[in-house]
Amino acid sequence: MEVTKIIKLKLKKNDYQKIIASLMIFALISLYVISHNGAEIPFDSQVFKILNDIRDNNFIVNVMKVISFLGSLEFLLPFIGILVAYYIYRKNYIIALKLGLSTGLTGILNQLTKLVFNRMRPFKYMLIEQTGFSFPSGHTMTNFCFYLIVASILSEKYPNYKWVFYTIAVILGFIMGLSRIILGVHWATDVLAALILGYVCYAMIKKIEFA
């Protein structure tokens, strides 16, 4: 397959419906966040209250720090870069493209969304230092999209285990998001919004084909 072939996004009616439904949920979360005018949201406060004992456990916090690092761009970019280089070497350009976009597309969309909302991080809950705006969670959004793309790639090769791959992807995405809340660098609504947008990015990237 040649790299010079045209790239097309082949979405079906069902795909559009899922994407639109997801964006509507994201819109509702966004409106909920905006309606509080920067004040702490009761739902977010309640989540931190529920996780209070876990956040006091040093072992769990240290595990969450490791998980968070594995989801950071410092780790993820080189890792995905190696995968992309491997698939380019194997001349499987479509997989290389999808893996690259799983980080690139989500990263750009995440930063643009953060600039739109300008939401402050939960500074009083922070267990580690983190800068930048809060909504939505970049770690969660990028990694969830990446996990789902990997699940789709593996499912094409091993269709009988499709449910296993996607179940693992969802669990890993949830754990990544949870780690960001436990470490106090994101509100729960940041993570929920990130999961939604991560899925939307995945739903589009998955349907990319060479014409």
Topology:
Layout lengths: L6 E3 L3 H22 L7 H9 L1 H4 L2 H13 L2 H17 L3 H25 L20 H20 L4 H21 L5 H18 L2 E3 L1
Antiparallel strand pairs: 1-2
Keyword list:
211 residues, mainly alpha, two-stranded antiparallel sheet, 9 helices, 2 strands
Helix content: over 70%
Largest sheet: 2 strands, antiparallel
How many domain regions?
A: 1
Order of helices and strands: EHHHHHHHHHE
Number of helices: 9
Helical/strand content category? mainly alpha
Adjacency order of strands in the biggest sheet: 1-2
Strand content: under 5%
Give the overall form: globular
Instruction: Please state the CA-atom Rg, rounded to the nearest Å.
Output: 18 Å
Residue-averaged pLDDT: 92
What distance separates the N and C termini?
10 Å
User: Total number of β-strand segments?
Assistant: 2
How would you characterize this protein structure?
It is a single chain. The protein is an all-alpha fold. The chain has one domain. It has 9 helices and 2 strands. It has a two-stranded antiparallel sheet. 35% of the residues are buried.
Quick structural gist:
This protein is mainly alpha-helical. Helices cover about 70% and strands about 5% of the residues.
